[in-house]
């Protein structure tokens, strides 16, 4: 079993939205970033994996077995974009509760994380800032030593310094080759920084599942005037969009493109650029 998550032909219909034949995998020892616009279907997919929602059809395996088998959840650490702990509790109270739930709870690890992220043990959560609540949620998800972390917008609300520390913690986590992280975020720079694979979902459909290095090292944005654009072969770019005077094209092999079209400027493409091309569209090359 090479994958900690395997999703095949997953479908879920809501009024006005459908998750449409979604398939992807989260390999062991890897971080997979899940990106897409608001309402694309990221949280729905995550809730289906966690069996918080019932699927209409398709298969979901976690750790090589059906995701509905109760023992599966014991090995998953989950963080949502909101802290679900009650305001009257302290971090120490939360520890007592979670210690009773998870057989693998590691109190020393929990205390180390609290210290590292400067979370007070005796103050009530009601007095915490949003960032402190987020950090506590992440710490709790990791302190029972899960094999899989599922994070839905978990770094939103953290300042850049703390985000960086948390991302380092995630990288440390997958040093154990059995562990994986499935990570949705609107902060594409976080995903660009730590993900091994990137999945883009748009309007309930998977647009691509790609190695991050392929996206950031090989994709590019070519910029030219309308006359030069008219001379391009449509096989050499994926999508184009027209601005007032010029045309921008997303290309999947910037070096090959530069060799063929020596007088056209090609910039590196960030994950955000790539996502915007696919999501906002432009004019696809078939048009
Ligand atoms: N329980 C539900 N009942 C009806 N519709 C739902 C339900 N949950 C989600 N939806 C709809 O499914 C669509 C996808 O929502 P989802 O929360 O999965 O998107 P998302 O990609 O996580 O978005 P965001 O980035 O804004 O969190 C939306 O149109 C939403 O209104």
UniProtKB/TrEMBL annotation:
Q: Where is the ABC transporter domain?
A: 1-228
Q: What is the lineage of its organism?
A: Bacteria, Bacillati, Bacillota, Clostridia, Lachnospirales
Q: Cross-referenced SUPFAM superfamilies, in alphabetical order?
A: P-loop containing nucleoside triphosphate hydrolases
Q: Which UniProt keywords apply?
A: ATP-binding, Nucleotide-binding, Transport
Cited InterPro entries: AAA+_ATPase (IPR003593), ABC_transporter-like_ATP-bd (IPR003439), ABC_transporter-like_CS (IPR017871), ABC_Transporter_VariousFunc (IPR051782), P-loop_NTPase (IPR027417)
Family matches, as PANTHER family: ABC TRANSPORTER ATP-BINDING COMPONENT, ABC TRANSPORTER ATP-BINDING PROTEIN ALBC-RELATED
Work out whether the entry's keyword set contains Nucleotide-binding.
Answer: yes
Residue ranges annotated as transmembrane are: none
CDD domains named among the record's database cross-references: ABC_DR_subfamily_A
Which PROSITE patterns has this protein been placed in?
Answer: ABC_TRANSPORTER_1 (PS00211), ABC_TRANSPORTER_2 (PS50893)
Q: Name one Pfam family in it.
A: ABC_tran
Q: Recorded GO terms, molecular function?
A: ATP binding; ATP hydrolysis activity
Q: Which gene encodes it?
A: ytrB_1
The name of this protein is: ABC transporter ATP-binding protein YtrB
Concerning Gene3D superfamilies, the annotation shows: P-loop containing nucleotide triphosphate hydrolases
